[in-house]
Amino acid sequence: MTSAALLFADGVKLHQAGRLADAEQIYHRILATLPDHFDCLHLLGLIFLQRGHHAQAVEQIDTALKRQPDNIFALNNRGIALKELKRLDEALASYDRALAVRPDYAEALSNRGNTLRLLQRFDDALASYDCAIAARPDYVEALLNRGNTLKDLQRYDDALASYARVLAVDPNAAQAHANRGSVLHELKRFDEALASCDRALAIRADIAELHAIRGNVLYSLQRCEQALVSYDRALALRPAMAEVHYNRGNALDELRRFDEALASYDRALALRPDYAEAHYNRGNALHVLKRFDEALADYDRALALRPDYAEVAANCGATLHDLKRYDEALASYGRAQALRPDFADAHYNEAMCRLLLGDFERGWQKHEWRWQTAQLKNAKRDVPQPLWLGSDAIRGKTIFLHAGQGLGDTIQFCRYAPLVVQRGAHVILEVQKPLQELMSTLPSAMQIVSKGDPLPAFDLHCPLLSLPLALATRLETIPSAMPYLFARESKTRVWRERLRKHAKLRVGVVWAGNPRKELPGANRIDGQRSIAFDQLAPLFQLTGCDFYSLQKGDDAVRQLRTSSFRHAVTDWTDELHDFSDTAALIEKLDLVVSVDTSVAHLAGALGKPFWLLNRYNTCWRWLADRDDSPWYPTARLFRQDATRKWDPVIARVAAALHDHVRGLRTSQ
Question: 398 has which bridge partners?
């Protein structure tokens, strides 16, 4: 063997050992005397490729190919470098040159598939992988990427089969376990997905992507704290993973750690300024933090990057709605619907806006989209009988009216049941168990059943909240004859006796709603409408009033019973077992002061005066910019101003209550 050959052999050994600088020196020494040495020219190009110097790699390999234009190994490596440079068509041409020389060259077939996948020519990529696997059935990389391409095509079962073939060849292929977990995640087989991720990490804990996939699975399992641990491990290994920063932000958002979520979205955007999804979710977090103008700016950026991003247009509408820029909100909802005509949330949000503005004609029609939203689709009643929405005659037929949402909704809309009876139908009214006895006081003959009880036979059905559409309710035709619910004498008698000696103005108070944790987003709404008990303190300093708690719910009641103001409020709520008991106590009070809860609706339905502590971005039912309610003539609304603070509202209520008491004294 010549000295050059021996020296080259030493260079190859050093190269294989990863000592690139030493190998490079040897290759250059050889080229100094043998400038046409193909292998040295090619391997120098490979060193550039291994160092990530892709443009130099292409230039160097091209120099080598001038000596051997048909060398399949050089053509393959040239294709890899061109792919990294995103010169994908040139990469394909390089692989094709190699395959023209050897059609069964598995590495070039597999790399060609990788490039076709980047070009989103998925079927062509699969064909290339299949040829590579035909040439080498145990080719793990080709089998793995074939599975990844099938995943891209959402052919999840086929992808799982491809990963299974990888694991049959190499049971310790960590990436195959992880990618299998990713596909199982897409199939919502979360426990299996987590097991696959854990298996992958038991084999290789030093691969950032594996931790990232595990974090995604844990996030879907709503184990957000654990997801954060996985995301942090991924980022410790590879800090520049924009998608992991983004997903970390989503987990922090779910944990309501919004400022931290913003920081994660910011890191994602620093790495990838064109990351539309990160702008979108950053906007959502800013919305929750009431930084509405900033939220709108992020939505605008997301839409500039992805003009077809319907979710952004819809949430932009929600932010504009909260800012009371209603015409702009409607335009945004319209844009979302134009982008995606079946976008239920955009239609439903439009309904809320139109109803808030008193546009009942279009509002009730759009309101029917609620059953297709993620929030309410599981609440839709699945019965075989036809839905009645007012077009068919119902005289002599039996119709099933059913509550589908909150207790307050049932109280507000049960007023329509007697109107259905007036049309000659036999009505079966199904309500939540705590309302059953109260509903039996409705002023028409009907059958009241509790949700979950066996149902009698019926011909038609209609949700309570669809009755305004069925009966063509307009703002001026709201059924507002009060009362339409009543307290039973047998129950009011107890409170009459107990309150006989209470000569001051009797005021019931409610300060918190029900978070309704079963509904997505409900906690955020409750956080806007509920207040802390101690915030009512200005009321308790008034003379001339006795205060009575009407508040249920363990957390809220605990606030009362541990407060320094607890002696200012009489608490008999342990004796209120259902709404008929609460109605009896309210009947013997003079006034109810309440946040937006079912008790406020109950007071209104009983015809009792109630003062509503109303949030700035009010619920649609209280209408825009009104301090009265066509739904309840006895209501008086005290709204937050643009600061969205409760203290000014309570100060106004305290002043109004003071004036009310003074007026009563004057009139006596």
Answer: 426
In this prediction the pTM is 0.84
CA distances to 258, 310, 430, 551 from 646, in Å: 22, 34, 36, 18
Q: Are 117 and 87 in contact (CB under 8 A)?
A: no
Which residues, 6 or more positions from 327, have their beta carbon under 8 angstroms from its beta carbon?
A: none
- Specify burial of residue 68 (Cβ count, 10 A radius: 0-12, 13-18, 19+): middle
Mean pLDDT confidence for 88-112: 96
Closest CA to 601 of 623, 586, 617: 586
Distance CA 75, CA 81 (A): 10
Measured between alpha carbons, how far is 329 from 158 in angstroms, rounded to an integer? 44
The CATH number of domain 489-667, selected from 3.40.1190.20, 3.40.50.1580, 1.20.1260.10, 3.40.50.2000: 3.40.50.2000
Render pLDDT for 527-576 as a digit per residue (tens, 0 to 9). Answer: 688 999 999 999 999 889 999 999 999 999 999 999 999 999 999 999 99
CATH topology of domain 385-477: Rossmann fold (3.40.50)
The span from the CA of 440 to the CA of 427, in Å, is 12
Task: Using alpha carbons, select from 511, 519, 600 the residue that is nearest to residue 552.
Answer: 511
CB 605 within 8 A of CB 412: yes
Give me the pLDDT at residue 517, please: 44
- C-alpha distances (whole Å) from 413 to each of 82, 107, 418, 442, 657 are 67, 69, 11, 12, 29
* Token pair listed for 328: 């702009």
- CATH tag, 57-299: 1.25.40.10
| Cα distances (angstroms) measured from residue 477 to each of 228, 330, 382, 525, 630 | 53, 24, 30, 29, 9
Pairing of strands 591-595, 505-510: parallel
Q: Taking a C-beta distance cutoff of 8 angstroms, is the pair 359, 418 a contact?
A: no
What is the C-alpha radius of gyration for the chain, rounded to an integer number of angstroms? 35
Beta-bridge partner residues of 292: none
Q: Assign domain 310-378 to its CATH superfamily.
A: Tetratricopeptide repeat domain (1.25.40.10)
Contact call for residues 78 and 58 (beta carbons, < 8 A): yes
Distance between CA atoms of 450 and 274, rounded to whole angstroms? 53
User: What is the DSSP secondary-structure string of 463-502?
Assistant: EGGGHHHHTT--GGG----S-SS---HHHHHHHHHHTTT-
pLDDT at 520: 42
Residue 1 has pLDDT above 90, yes or no: no
Residues 6+ apart with CB under 8 A from 415: 479, 484, 605
CB 264 within 8 A of CB 241: no
Q: CA–CA separation, 301 vs 307, rounded Å?
A: 10
3-state helix, strand, coil in the chain (%, to 5): 60, 5, 30
Residue from 388, 317, 379 nearest 348 by CA? 317
**Does the bond joining 483 to the residue before it have cis omega, within 30 degrees of 0?**
yes
Residue 646, SS3 per DSSP: coil
Give the three-state DSSP class for 590.
coil
User: In this structure, are residues 612 and 635 in contact, taking their beta carbons and an 8 Å threshold?
Assistant: yes
Q: According to CATH, where is 1.25.40.10 located in the chain?
A: 57-299, 310-378
- Locate 165 and state its tokens: 């073939």
Q: How many CB atoms lie within 10 A of CB 612?
A: 28
CA distance 230 to 239: 13
Q: Which parts of 551-646 fold into alpha helices (H)?
A: 554-561, 579-587, 598-605
Residues contacting 345, CB < 8 A, separation 6+: 314, 373, 374
Alpha carbon distance 371, 429 (integer Å) = 20
Neighbours of 109 (CB within 10 A): 27
